[in-house]
Write a structure and sequence with these properties.
The structure is a homodimer. Chain A has about 525 residues and is an alpha+beta fold. Chain A contains 16 helices and 26 strands. In chain A, α4 packs parallel to α9, α4 packs parallel to α16 and α11 packs across α15.
Chain lengths: ~525, ~525
């Protein structure tokens, strides 16, 4: 869903030296993402007969847990505070009313067939537990365009197409390295023959001329685009080092599409991200009670008692998928260690702003899906990856999560909604001069203010690295018959995949308690 | 459609120094691909009334010419040798019989809804003249996945996922450069502050640790993929320089997706590439005569006389879109210079091999669209970009065009069809062990042997660079009332966009002759 700049840099080993520690591990050869076991997860049929489980939360973790538990014969009740399923998987359509804590009431105003994925919007093809549910439940998928060389980068007040930035930086890097090699500074770095072959490759890779100079290849674009007959293209000049790197803000976009969870092929369900949650919900809806906030989580002997709006639900076991900031405030019999850990978890308070508009980005600028990047506070503009050439579309004018600023989303979400919308429209105006006047139906979602979520997922200390800290370990521990799930209890944090994986682990614990057998 | 390795390297300035000459041109600032004028091309309405034009060939150039001429009021006849429209835009379905020169008759055997784009398969989003026709004529588009980090690279007998190769090479390049910078070899390359900022960026860009070492970031993949609870990921080790660059064959794949015409966002028509040609054909079909090979092209006074199967067609003007190797053999009154130029044009004889199979690449390997690369003779495997999770799909087992071998497609197409299929299946077996037995319905298209095409487009001397040579200039010249069009008469050679652009130029010449006015 979102990764902070800090988390990303951390994962790349820049902040913590994690790269080194990972490297120390022996290479075991490449394995397929997750295991076949994870994709084909299932508890033994009938193994839960006679046992009752209450699941708290009808987000992905809760729905997956309920789906798998029911298949195994458990009697399941899912208790959900909201009047909708999906949790942070929230696809807004039509004229939905949007209430947020300490924010004015907003009303969506999207046309027929339009939607806004306020939460997650992409599915990496490596996330095949969640993709496996899409497959099993017949949810059609299409490609999500996560990188578009025609999209604009707007940094330090200058807009350039991504192709020019990406290709010129590779040219600059290659030119510098060729200079060092040709100047014999790296003669001892590898054997002579290898260095010669590497240098030859570098020329092609970075588009250098025979002297090792980078001179803006056609990959960077044209001043005049190629035509027919007597209309040859003409090249653009290369950008300077300062134009390519005006500030630290621009770092991440250069390798964004190579971040593991952002790599092609990226997918989306046809019709909105909530289609997978919807398909799961359809399988378990007779077990789901919506509009029912939980008021206390109690142990009663070796069983559980959930107090909630309208009554009490008793069960043998509980799968609790509530987000940490929400769960931390619900009265419970949890251990002091669990309560302390829950209180300490920081949730990323990212924000998105959407508009509906005629597809001027396709019509005028030939941009089909993909992301624009900026050092403005809105950070990210996202074009729709579907419905190409149809009259209108939903454009994301801001996706603020710490992509280009260390101080966002905080600096953005502290602003009034109207100002967030103004900044987003201003960024679109810079990318598409004269077009912001075509923007309609603005809608701003500040996840820190979304009731029953209060953020998009766990970040910060104990959650920011490939290694997890003590709070993570504590939160994974069951409390007697109560087990926990959610993206924050996985190493695929902030993604639906993590929610599904954690649900599998949680119900394996339930199964262990119920049947006395370990499910591997 | 296809670019030879030679042409690509040429375009990157590596063979000819073209990069340098282009760089000498003044940067004029980035302009949108092609001009609004090209997208909105149209001759003045009614301006062709009373004038008769014969168009030779119902490929994209011929269909675009006919469509635009008819809109302007010309009386148009399109003469097409084949019993189908589209020319090199050839989408094979069902049980189509496939005859090729000096090749055994083949029969397609594809299931309902399956198709094989034997010719072009992708539409760069910068090609908006052809995309403009798709838009105007209501042809729905979807994304073509042109790069997939999960797809395999099979070089020197070793298969690695693309993500590992791509990210490790960037790591290696960055590590080498960091070593040079940290060793003060590049202190004079840029001002100290810039160098410091550049070095900091390089660490993030290439995933280096604090000491400047590259240690395989998570972008390269995992030995154990991340799970939930107590299942952290473990890293793969970095590949060696020799594993990354085992031979020259592997060069192009590293920057393939950054080649101008291969850059994201790439598109395809829903249902097969011929859907755009089909939509154009639907507009002009009352003017089109199929199954009618041309036997002579004659001038008669200031008019033209086309001799063809079943008779003669006379017209005021002719738009000739026939491929050079075909046209070179048709008797005509062309000038000696034109005839000599036609004879000298080399056409790229690329080949494709397709199979239909259960989607084991999605089921087992989570590969959704994209390309696998290999130094085997088949060069390229292409996975379908649509119908994800449906039971079966058409997989391209070979796309041979000189991507990884300087001696292909020649070395491949000289082999018997059965051997071409065997090599392709063997490559798929290497990428997906045990799965080649699921391949069905092989079909091999050798474009050099496709009658009325004899190749996919002009390459070689005079066509291999951004600058065109004398033969190109000669072929663009009209012969009295006869004007010429086709991808080979454009700077977007081997693409439908070039065909459409050239058709525009050709009919502007017709208009000039007919009305005495220049169309800009």
């Amino acid at each position: 869903m979102a990764l902070t700049r800090r988390k990303l840099l951390g994962e790349l080993g820049l902040l913590s030296g994690a790269g080194v520690s990972l490297a120390a591990l022996q290479s075991l050869g490449i394995e397929s993402p997750a295991s076949a076991k994870a994709t084909q997860f299932g508890l033994p049929k009938g193994s839960g007969a006679g046992k009752r489980v209450v699941v708290l939360g009808a987000g992905i973790a809760g729905l997956v847990a309920a789906y798998e538990l029911r298949k195994a014969g458990y009697a399941v009740t899912v208790i959900e505070a909201r009047n909708r399923f999906g949790g942070r998987v929230w696809t807004i359509r039509g004229r939905e009313q949007v209430a947020q804590i300490d924010r004015p009431l907003q009303q969506a105003n999207f046309g027929q067939g339009q939607y806004f994925n306020a939460g997650p919007a992409r599915l990496p093809s490596t996330h095949h537990v969640i993709l496996g549910y899409a497959q099993r439940l017949g949810v059609p998928l299409e490609v999500f365009v996560n990188s578009n060389q025609s999209a604009g980068w707007d940094f330090a007040g200058r807009v350039e197409p991504q192709r020019r930035m990406i290709n010129d930086i590779r040219g600059l890097v290659g030119e510098m390295l060729a200079k060092a090699i040709d100047g014999h500074s790296l003669d001892s770095a590898m054997p002579t023959k290898e260095l010669k072959d590497f240098r030859e490759f570098l020329g092609a890779y970075s588009g250098l001329d025979k002297k090792g100079a980078y001179a803006a290849t056609i990959s960077s674009g044209f001043a005049n685009w190629p035509g027919a007959y007597d209309r040859p293209p003409s090249a653009v000049g290369r950008l300077t080092m300062r134009q390519l790197l005006p500030s630290r803000a621009i770092g991440l976009p250069y390798f964004f599409e190579q971040i593991m969870d952002m790599q092609a092929t990226m997918m989306q369900p046809v019709g909105g991200m909530d289609r997978i949650a919807h398909a799961l919900f359809e399988q378990v809806k007779s077990s789901v009670v919506l509009g029912t906030p939980v008021s206390a989580i109690r142990r009663e002997g070796d069983k559980v008692r959930i107090e909630h709006k309208g009554g009490v639900t008793r069960a043998d076991y509980c799968v609790c998928t509530l987000p940490a900031p929400v769960l931390a405030r619900i009265p419970s019999d949890f251990s002091p260690a669990k309560k302390a850990a829950l209180k300490g978890v920081e949730y990323l308070k990212s924000a998105k702003v959407a508009f509906e508009a005629p597809r001027f980005w396709e019509r005028d600028d030939h941009i089909y899906g993909g992301l624009a990047w900026t050092d403005r506070l809105n950070e990210n503009v996202i074009y729709p990856s579907h419905g190409f050439h149809s009259p209108r579309g939903v454009i994301i004018g801001a996706y603020v999560a710490g992509w280009t600023h260390d101080d966002t989303p905080e600096a953005f979400v502290q602003l009034p909604i109207a100002e967030q919308i103004r900044i987003s429209a201003g960024s679109i105006e810079a990318l598409h001069p004269g077009r912001s006047r075509e923007l309609r139906s603005p809608l701003a979602i500040n996840w820190g203010q979304v009731r029953y979520s209060e953020g998009v997922g766990a970040v910060g200390r104990d959650f920011g690295e490939d290694k997890r800290g003590p709070a993570y370990d504590e939160l994974c521990k069951p409390e007697g018959p109560i087990v926990f799930a959610g993206e924050h209890l996985s190493y695929v944090g902030l993604w639906q995949e993590g929610s599904a994986l954690s649900a599998h682990e949680a119900i394996k614990l339930v199964q262990q308690m119920a049947v006395g057998q370990t499910v591997s």
